[in-house]
């Protein structure tokens, strides 16, 4: 699919959206379609309705004029709100074309390359023009009227080729560079930490806007919020727990439990809740095991799956039955609920004051189900869907996008290009260590960098987990003092700014696709993937491999 910048632009007129949709559906996977591009130079403000970048063909700036448009001896005219006004779309688009061309040429990232072919086009989707030039400045092949809309993408390609006038067509690398320059994607030779902090602030604001979805749940007490990586599920789960605990004008305050599976995510939830006013804090925050431990459930061997999948849930269910009313919960909120086994839901529901009508709010992403357990709550839930990625940069989102459960729209801003570093599986850890050093040399703070493995643990992770208990090990993730070494199995819900994903397995194990999805989507700002190209291709598929440049 064509690369869209932005993914879902907002247009002021229906004609602009219709033309954009035709181009979107007809361009090739290597092309770039930019909408509503604004540029200010020393002379004036410019705005391009569309910019089409086509490798080995050319670049075309497109001006769209809707309604009734015609040309007579006095020039161009457009009917607007019942009145005729004079316009000059050709001069407008030519001026914008030259402004964009010069802006690209003077950017240091262009690095004194030769000028490439820039063309311009006027698209008038509702009016009709004769099959002749519309003037010396507008040959008919650069004017596209209502009869030309059926094959508009092909006409724009021809438009670009005919406007070449001896100049060379852009290469694939040229198109990527022009797209980066025109959309403000910045190199990482300055303070990457400041850029990451700004993007995180924007993501927080967008997530709070998205929290409006929780208003839908005011009259519902059994809800499942589904969303892909980066959609803000954890922030919404926290907000849901806070609002239920605090109560509202139309709803009393409740005794709430906030649960998850992994120790690392539980530590994050606890730290967030600790910053709230005491009246907003849920009665319980922690893992499923800690949920039962407060009633007297025993600890178990981490390698004994029978204990976790069968024995512990049975014990917790019996303990929950005997809980006094004051120890039960009005509502339970579960984050990363796809990690819960089927047997775990029984003690969760029994811990409610009202097992039939008590609140159950579930936040999940089925494509992050990377454990060999399958279980859904045995109750009817009202589904709500999050379809915007707010956390990952557009570059990271587009790279792992083919692995996501459904189409999502990138709103996380621009960042560095995702890099793939090929190596053998045996050399993956050593290569990943070199890439971590490279990120530190580029200015990333050590506490912002994470190395994640998909196979065996990194030696530093093994050393730290042997030295610390699990709780102590995960506290180091939040200390910001050193690079964190972890495994994709334990990092769901956690989002470090810079990640080196070390694919140090042969891809033969089950759910390697899901592990790749989780690992790639952890990074919010910069992602480096290290591994055997064929292993990554088998795990992620041809589209992910293509986006990684494999």
Give a structural overview.
This protein has 550 residues and is α/β, with parallel strands linked by helices. It contains 16 helices and 22 strands. The strands form five sheets. It has a six-stranded mixed β-sheet with strand order 1-2-3-4-8-9, sandwiched between helices. Helix 11 runs antiparallel to helix 15 (512-521) and helix 15 packs across helix 16 (533-547). It starts with a strand and ends with a helix. The mean pLDDT is 87.
Topology:
Blueprint: E1 3-5, H1 14-26, E2 32-40, E3 45-54, E4 58-64, E5 69-72, E6 75-80, E7 83-87, H2 89-106, E8 118-123, E9 143-144, H3 152-162, H4 172-182, H5 192-210, E10 222-227, H6 233-246, E11 256-260, H7 263-274, E12 284-287, H8 288-293, H9 305-321, E13 331-334, H10 345-350, E14 359-364, E15 382-386, E16 388-389, H11 394-400, E17 409-410, E18 419-422, H12 428-441, E19 449-453, H13 459-467, H14 470-475, E20 484-487, E21 498-503, H15 512-521, E22 526-531, H16 533-547
Parallel strand pairs: 1-2, 4-8, 8-9, 10-14, 10-15, 11-12, 11-13, 13-14, 16-17, 18-22, 19-20, 19-21, 21-22
Antiparallel strand pairs: 2-3, 3-4, 5-6, 6-7
Helix pairs in contact: 11-15, 15-16
Give descriptors for this structure.
34% helix, 550 residues, 20% strand, alpha/beta, 16 helices
| Strand fraction | 15-25%
The biggest beta sheet, please?
6 strands, mixed
Tally of strands: 22
**Structural class based on helices, strands and sheet pairing:** alpha/beta
Helix content: 25-40%
User: Looking across the biggest beta sheet, what order are the strands in?
Assistant: 1-2-3-4-8-9
Instruction: Indicate the radius of gyration in whole angstroms.
Output: 27 Å
Residue stretches low in confidence (pLDDT < 50, at least 5 long) are none
Which geometry do the CA atoms define?
Answer: elongated
Gap from first CA to last CA = 17 Å
